[in-house]
Amino acid sequence: MTTTETTSPAPSAATTERMLFVNLPVSDPAATRSFWSGLGFAINEGFCDANATSVQLNPLTSVMFLEHDYFHSFHGTTAPTSGTGALYCLSAPSRDDVTALCEAAFAAGATRSADPTDQGPMFGWSFVDPDGHLWEVMWMDPAAMG
């Protein structure tokens, strides 16, 4: 049996600098706005209205929280029947920042998903936001990342 090794072309600036917009359904965009701004995240007013709240994670990454019916109108989808559809992970610059962000989320109405996990060079904690989305906040030791 032989294997064929293939190589991908080197990424161009267009592929390494792409923006990411995660779109999530929510029941109340205004309440979602209060939750995330209360955690210290910037709101991009240019993409907000009664149906949407845009949370800017960094210059290239935004989360668009869209009212359920508006969210599903884009592709004619319906809400899943049950289960976790995805886990969203945010990086943190330190262990203390993981703890601070999760504690702020709990104080703002999020629920604990699990106890903090300490795996030496990685430390994380997770919460479920008021709309049921699962978020993990993770610190990774830069020295261990190689």
TrEMBL record:
InterPro entries: Glyas_Bleomycin-R_OHBP_Dase (IPR029068), Glyas_Fos-R_dOase_dom (IPR004360), VOC_core (IPR037523). Residues 18-140 form the VOC domain. PROSITE patterns: VOC. Pfam families: Glyoxalase. PANTHER family: BLR2408 PROTEIN, BLR2520 PROTEIN. This is VOC domain-containing protein. It comes from Nocardioides imazamoxiresistens.
